[in-house]
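Bench notes, afternoon.
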Amino acid sequence: MEIRLLEKEDDLEVLPKYIKEWVQHFPENDYIIVFLYLNKQLQCVAPFLLEKKKVFFSFSATFLRFTGFSEFNDFIFLKNDINKDNCYKAIFEYLFLNVSFDLISLGKIRGDSYLFWYLKKSIWGKYLSFSTEVPFNVLCEGMNSNNLKTQKKFMNKFKKNYDYQFHYYSGNKPETLLNEVINIYLKQYDYLSTEKHAKRFNIFSNDNFINFINKIFHDENTIVYFISVDEKIITYDISFLHGRELIRWNSGYDPDFAKSRPLYIQISELFSYLQEKSEVKYFCWGNGGYPWKFQWTRNFHSLYEFEMPNLSSKKMAFLKSIFKYIEISKRLGLYYRLFYP
């Protein structure tokens, strides 16, 4: 096996579009993108970045993280018949021998993924920790029966009050759609911040991120569906199609319609629509095991984090020698978990 890092612009062409665009729109990041070859054929890509942050007073450490834009993280295998164990082993060995970092911190690892299994059965398995649930629906099973009565109640009331349309787009979309979606998101953001006093991160506050989304927005696998009343969007979802799984990423609604529960109508219409699309088998609600998601399903994936110190790093060896002799407070619980899991 041969391993090398991203070196030139041409290397970007072999990356999935969402990673390629991410690298191009955020060039300030310190990327470590690993290419693994077998018999001169590219077999696997592992996309990382290095991030420096303070961890203890003025003490900073360098974290090795996944990069790109994804609800779930793993290495990207380009060949189906490759030995994944050998790939993981070779790439991790390369990282520890050739890349300078203090901690490896990999998030959004699905419990049913090969990466989770590889780490769990290794001597590093103790550094895996549960993060959150990701609810999903198997479309042929329908929705949670406990939610049907509530769903029909809001559906009937909404139909009585509004003449609405359901829209579903893949591939090319109306030119103004992204701006309309962002406007709804920002209107909801202001409403939640002022009326509900909910602290949320504004994902559309960064121009580079908006430009990045614009680049992938019209892809065939970027799915946008929404409800409109009088030709105005009142609620929307942006999802991504991965194989036969539709993964929900971002949603928003017009606060003027909040009491009408437009999400119920949108999801109900979506499920009816997807029943006729054989290429979609699963609907994933996105990261976060919020109670309202479980009103729709009993199924869920588990997400894990992998956090392990690089003990060949002088900083980590120094920290471990300190924490060995001091009482670990709750504030330092992270470090206790890292060094003594």
